[in-house]
Amino acid sequence: MEAIILQILNGLDKGSAYALIALGLTLIFGTLGVVNFAHGALFMIGAFCAVVMQRLLGLSYEQVDPTKTDFLGNPLKVQVPYVESWFGPEIGGAIVDWSVPLAIVLAIPVMVILGFVMERGLIKHFYKRPHADQILVTFGLAIVLQEVIKYFFGANPIQSGAPAALSGSFDFGAMLGFDPNVVIYPFWRLVYFLFSLVIIAGVFAFLQFTTFGMVVRAGMADRETVGLLGIDIDRRFTIMFGLAAAVAGLAGVMYTPILAPNYHMGMDFLVLSFVVVVVGGMGSLPGAVAAGFLLGILQSFASMNEVKSIIPGIDQVIIYLVAIVILLTRPRGLMGRKGVMED
Amino acid sequence: MFGLNAKDTRFLLIVVFLTLATPILLQPFPESSSLAQFNAGYPDLMQKFAIFGIFAIGFNILFGLTGYLSFGHAAFLGVGSYTVVWMYKLLSYNILPGLVLSIIISALFALVIGFISLRRSGIYFSILTLAFAQMSYNLAYSVLTPITNGETGLQVYTNDPQVLMGANSPTSPHLFGLVMRESVQVDMGGWLFTFNIGYYFCAIIAILAFYISLRIFRSPFGMMLRAIKTNQTRMNYTGLNSRPYTLAAFVISGMYAGLAGGLLAAMDPLAGAERMQWTASGEVVLMTILGGAGTLMGPVLGAGFIKYCENIFSKINDGILHSWFAFLPDGIENFLVTLVHPFVGKGWHLTLGILFMLVVIFLPGGLVEGFQRISRLFRSKRVKDGPRRKDPEHHPKSAPHVAE
């Protein structure tokens, strides 16, 4: 029982990332009908927003500290971050410590603007072209974004930690009444899971309970009719693209303490997220979320030693295997709608 | 000739000539000149041209003719490589058994994967092939280590059986004694030409592969594949089952990929799992699209173009850039160098990405379409020029409406 709970918990954080990226992908596909291969790159750029924020907050100047001396006996020069000198060492230190969550503030405008520029500048011209062309041009864009990031930040992963208060682990099993020290879970992964739930709930609420969301949903169902009603559906879809980019970016920002960002992380996640989208059903938002969590948890179950000893190597292939089985038995995925991408 | 009409025969002969003369044509600059770094006539690179040309030709038979976009062709490349290296380990360094077997085994692989994947079309097909390729890649890295030697990569060790190995047979890949890595160098007044046995072996196979693809393009079978690309639903309504045709195309292109993988191992007796990764599949997609999908020459051009850039662009460093712009004032020189720097050397992938995007946006037909447009531009000018010169005689100026 403990082992099962532990594996479910382990699967949740990866599943959350898959679900968030797949949600954005499906949002873009459902509204604009574009298969966006650059979505993984957006996730990656989000993660690098956290890196930028960390560096911005870490900007410091040199100050001579008269109370201390270095090993030669001269007064010690210390690096003092500007934030610490503005807000005092305590609040300033806390701000530096919380740089990853604070990066959300930076990531949202950056990602939304990037999304707008992408949609208006490039993807707009590809609505009428075949899906293969859309895949190819966004694939090219993903390479370009990836290389630009590599140029500025180098090829090595850049560590950025969670806030000290959230960086430890806690005994989740003891809280549920199991034996202590069996189900130990890092705080940040729980935070990430809750965060992704909030985002997913937010997106669904936005689509379900606002007039804007209602119009977007109507446009997803029948774009022409909505256009004929005199509603500028293209503008709303552009905003949805920005929203999807922001969701991917936020998923990336908060993932940095779990996986140190590197320039090709986007591609690694993209391939799996695509599988997730297809398993969930192209164009179905709940399907994407459900499949994301499902595959994340399945993957962590498959990497249990007990399972691996029965079927060796299953942890490496489980996602793809599930995708193949589901695609062959349920052609539209778990919750796919009829008539989507069946050309 | 060869069952082709006159135009295609001429085309084939040009291709044969270009392929055989590659070591000379790609060496246009004398060895001592500063432009010598743009020479591509060294064996490693020429072999890659031929091998990836074969890979792209095969991919084009599937993608160019039927429109099925496979994101998993690298799996066959890897299978081919592993087969050839295993034949080295078991028999001897003769490449022939390995190459034949690599075609057969990759065909079997393609048959299985194709049979399952082709039940779906469009993006679902892409995802299915991608899933299969990633599965093979992950397995080759982990569980199949006894067969693939995992991260180290498969190679020949001294304690391998090599039952057919004679006392004085070569200790590197060879074809009945013709050692692949040997080459003849000819120095002609500053120009250094390298004629490599391995390259010529690959080149002859590439010409054969090209000829077969030419025949497929012109055959009723090729016509059928094109019909499937144009409108599969209508094909089904006419009572035709299109699956055997697409499966045949898939298996043929898988065999091409397996052969290419086998040749990679025939030139350099190593095989690694990274050859199966999806980035490798992405690369062949890039090659085919960049050159022009669905055209005969396009994929070869694309493969050559990408491999050339990969090898030549990535060698250009800051020192070389400085020497290029040395004639300019220092400030402008440094500015230009910093401007160009991100696009060359390690950053050549950026150039590739931008180029690829530009091609997809503006030239959906790839480089081939670009050449056609340029040639049409010239031809249409000539046509326009023709009648205009005769104009004054045959079409006198029309009389003005209003009396002047």
Structure description:
The complex is a heterodimer of chains A (343) and B (404). Helices cover 69% and strands 7% of the residues of chain A. Chain A has 343 residues and is mainly alpha-helical. In chain A, helix 7 packs antiparallel against helix 10. Chain A is globular, with a radius of gyration of 22 Å. The model of chain A has no long low-confidence stretch (mean pLDDT 83). Chain A has one domain. Chain B has a domain at 6-28 and 39-276. Chain B has helices spanning 6-20, 22-25, 43-66, 74-90, 95-117, 122-141, 145-148, 197-218, 220-230, 232-237, 243-267, 278-291, 298-312, 318-324, 330-340, 348-362, 366-394, and strands at 154-155, 174-175, 178-179, 183-188, 191-196, 270-271. Chain B starts with 5 loop residues before the first helix and ends in a 10-residue tail after the last helix. In chain B, helix 1 (6-20) packs antiparallel against helix 8 (197-218), helix 4 packs across helix 11 (243-267) and helix 12 crosses helix 13 (298-312). In chain B, the strands form 3 sheets. In chain B, strands 1-6 form a two-stranded antiparallel sheet. Chain B has a two-stranded antiparallel ribbon with strand order 2-3. Chain B has a two-stranded antiparallel sheet with strand order 4-5. Chain B is globular, with a radius of gyration of 25 Å. Chain A: This is Amino acid/amide ABC transporter membrane protein 1 (HAAT family). Chain A: One of its GO terms (biological process) is amino acid transport. Chain A: It is a multi-pass membrane protein. Chain A: Pfam families: BPD_transp_2. Chain A: Keywords: Amino-acid transport, Cell membrane, Membrane, Transmembrane, Transmembrane helix, Transport.
